[in-house]
């Protein structure tokens, strides 16, 4: 499946609770989100698989892929479009073999050494960050700032998406640093209007929002 990293929504169960997970995703996609990652550090595989199946149905026909954070079994059972793994998560090799050549597989990267060690031939994109410190991820790695982002994005042979404390007003600087898009949790999840929150990212970008 073709994918566009321009505005990458990562869900958070607690933050999405008020508005509803499916309602948040639906509104955010109407507002311009181009790719969705279901992320839940606490749910059982069964619960997450059921949610993933509902999101798959909701996203059908929109061209917006569904990526699962960490859980290969959930991705397989829900027939999600891809999997995103962190440095200490399931092996990329295993995921590629299990999910096949068309799956979208992404890896989180925080340092140049991690980028150099990444199996880029098995990946479709990388997540670079955190750009800023954030309360949305416990024990996140050292923030890299826009300079670190630029260094990693420019050294990276794959499309990249920046993450960590990003808001609409950062869209321009992220693109200037060389990343294809912004990944966000709290700038959309838990906002009074996830639709307006997603739209705000386009207002801050005076360029075409799609990946080059
Ligand atoms: N990985 C690095 S930072 C982060 C993740 C999942 C959380 C991003 O959340 P927010 O609210 O957009 O800062
Ligand atoms: Mg992880």
TrEMBL record:
Binding note for cofactor: Binds 1 Mg(2+) ion per subunit.
One BP annotation, GO: thiamine biosynthetic process
Pathway: Cofactor biosynthesis; thiamine diphosphate biosynthesis; thiamine phosphate from 4-amino-2-methyl-5-diphosphomethylpyrimidine and 4-methyl-5-(2-phosphoethyl)-thiazole: step 1/1
InterPro entries in the record: Aldolase_TIM, ThiamineP_synth_sf, ThiamineP_synth_TenI, TMP_synthase
Ligand binding (2-[(2R,5Z)-2-carboxy-4-methylthiazol-5(2H)-ylidene]ethyl phosphate): 134-136, 165, 185-186
Pfam families: TMP-TENI
Metal-binding among keywords: yes
One GO cellular component term: cytoplasm
Record-listed Mg(2+) binding positions: 70, 89
Keyword annotations of the record: Magnesium, Metal-binding, Thiamine biosynthesis, Transferase
Thiamine phosphate synthase/TenI domain span: 7-188
UniProt EC number: 2.5.1.3
Family annotation (HAMAP family): TMP_synthase (MF_00097)
Task of the protein: Condenses 4-methyl-5-(beta-hydroxyethyl)thiazole monophosphate (THZ-P) and 2-methyl-4-amino-5-hydroxymethyl pyrimidine pyrophosphate (HMP-PP) to form thiamine monophosphate (TMP).
Protein's name in the database: Thiamine-phosphate synthase
The organism of origin for this protein: Vreelandella sulfidaeris
């Amino acid at each position: 499946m073709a994918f566009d990293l321009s505005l990458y929504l990562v869900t958070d169960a607690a933050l999405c609770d008020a508005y509803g997970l499916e309602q948040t995703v639906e509104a955010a996609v109407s507002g311009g989100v181009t790719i969705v990652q279901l992320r839940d550090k606490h749910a059982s595989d069964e619960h997450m698989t059921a949610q993933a199946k509902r999101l798959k149905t909701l996203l059908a026909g929109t061209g917006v892929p569904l990526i699962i954070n960490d859980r290969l079994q959930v991705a397989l059972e829900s027939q999600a479009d891809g999997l995103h793994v962190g440095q200490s998560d399931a092996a990329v090799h295993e995921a590629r073999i299990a999910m096949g050549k068309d799956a979208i597989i992404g890896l989180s990267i925080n340092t140049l050494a991690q980028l150099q060690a990444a199996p880029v031939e098995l990946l479709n994109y990388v997540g670079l960050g955190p750009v800023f410190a954030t309360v949305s991820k416990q024990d996140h790695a050292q923030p890299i700032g826009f300079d670190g982002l630029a260094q990693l994005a420019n050294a990276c042979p794959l499309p990249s998406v920046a993450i960590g404390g990003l808001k609409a007003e950062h869209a321009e600087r992220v693109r200037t640093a060389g990343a294809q898009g912004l990944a966000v949790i709290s700038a959309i999840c838990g906002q009074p209007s996830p639709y307006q929150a997603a739209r705000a990212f386009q207002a801050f970008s005076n360029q075409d929002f799609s990946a080059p």
